[in-house]
Amino acid sequence: SRLEPEQSNVSKSPLSPEKSSQNSLEDSEEKLSAEESKDRNLPDAQSNLGLWGDSKGEDELSPEEIQMFEQENQRLVGEMNNLCDEVRQIEGKVVEISRLQEIFTEKVLQQETDIDNIHQLVVGATENIKEGNEDIREAIKNNAGFRVWILFFLVMCSFSLLFLDWYDN
């Protein structure tokens, strides 16, 4: 009988703190009354029940205790169902996140190929611009040389005309 109140404390511990404090007060009162009754009936109990005594009366639960355990059981089942629902929701969200992550990875890989293509185009455009600048410089040099030759030709023609005019006079 000393072990039973401790077992009931352990079995009642999942209750809320208010209920457990009330139960602990009730259990302590039960312990005191059980110890007092033991002290009075100790010789009778030892002679009639042996060393450990008959535990048939102690194993049976009162209707109040059965109702309390059923309520506790229903509450725990409800909590477990809520937890299962939450786990299912979280699992669905994880699956959705995984799907979105796969899409994100696919898009990143597409962007990688697009970036590589853009890089190649930019490198090609830079080379074309360098070649264009070199062609422009060459054209400017050629154009300047052509102007010099035209200028030289015009100057020579002018001197030729002046010489012919002087020679004719």
From TrEMBL:
**GO MF annotation terms:** SNAP receptor activity
The name this protein carries in UniProt is Syntaxin-18
What parts of the sequence cross the membrane?
A: 146-167
- PROSITE patterns in alphabetical order: SYNTAXIN (PS00914)
Compositional bias, Polar residues, is annotated for 1-25
The terms describing its cellular component in GO are: endoplasmic reticulum membrane; SNARE complex
UniProt-annotated stretches for the region Disordered: 1-61
Give yes or no: UniProt keyword Ion transport.
no
Query: What Gene3D superfamilies does the record point to?
Result: 1.20.5.110
Primary role? Syntaxin that may be involved in targeting and fusion of Golgi-derived retrograde transport vesicles with the ER.
Keyword set, alphabetical order: Coiled coil, Endoplasmic reticulum, ER-Golgi transport, Membrane, Protein transport, Transmembrane, Transmembrane helix, Transport
Q: Coiled-coil stretches, from where to where? A: 66-93
List the GO biological process terms: intracellular protein transport; retrograde vesicle-mediated transport, Golgi to endoplasmic reticulum
Q: What is the recorded membrane topology of this protein?
A: Single-pass type IV membrane protein
Alphabetical list of InterPro entries matching this protein: Syntaxin/epimorphin_CS (IPR006012)
What family does the Swiss-Prot or TrEMBL record give for this protein? Answer: Belongs to the syntaxin family.
Q: Does the keyword Manganese apply?
A: no
Subcellular locations according to the entry: Endoplasmic reticulum membrane
Basic and acidic residues composition-biased segments:
30-42
